[in-house]
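Need the bound structure for V07, inputs here:
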Amino acid sequence: MVKLNLPKHVAIIMDGNGRWAQKRGLPRIAGHKAGMNNLKSIATAASNLGIKALTVYAFSTENWKRPNNEVEFLMNLPITFFNKFMPTLMQNEVRVVITGFMEQLPPKTLAVCQKAIAQTRHNQGMILNFAFNYGAHSDIVNATKAFCQAVLDHQVDLNSLDETSFASYLQSAQLAELQNPDFLIRTSGEQRLSNFYLWELAYAEIVFANEYWPDYSEANFKRDLQKYSQRDRRYGGLDK
Ligand code: V07
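Answer from helper R.:
Posting the output first, comments after.
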């Protein structure tokens, strides 16, 4: 087999957990739990393949509109996730990063997330970036405000603003040279961005996989990486 042209940064919208459960006559939260276990499998596979950063869209700023019991369950998932999987993350040298409005999280969830970030801070392997309570419109508005404030405070010059400097105000700037995903996978057949990384995905290759997230296997992941590998990225230019 020819060598895969691997994306450095893969982003996944882990969709279809509720429908996976409903199809089996289970409560939606059973789907979220199965989805969390699947995340461990796919993150481990990504790390073993040599992917540098994996961003997973876990909870959007719009998801607070869901029923209270579901939101409460979702807010406990990071706690369960790190309780179960922190040893594996450490063994694989995975560095946890969170992109999102953390100040709005319940205190216990926030504490667990901050602890995981601190505990994995010096790990040298793959970055596992949780887009957690994230929304791109808010991120872009906040970035704009921060830039304007810096201008008002005479810290930066208005004319210094360009694509590169603007990107440094987005939350994803913490990923440094890995800020922009090369590849986006959305599971469960839905074909939308849903207010995920609108700026960062400008040149990403996209695959929509039909599997519900809890069913999305390592084999499916490799199939989709193969699809990425076969694409010809031109960034608006002509043939190389
Ligand atoms: C969530 C499991 C994966 C499928 C998508 C829906 C349910 C892991 C986390 C998580 C988030 C932050 C963090 C550590 C783990 C998570 C939510 C939902 C809200 F620092 N899975 N998972 N968070 N699901």
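Comments: The pocket of V07 is lined by residues 14, 17, 32, 35-36, 39, 58-59, 74, 77-78, 81, 98, 113, 116, 130, 132, 213 (CB under 6 Å). The mean pLDDT is 96.
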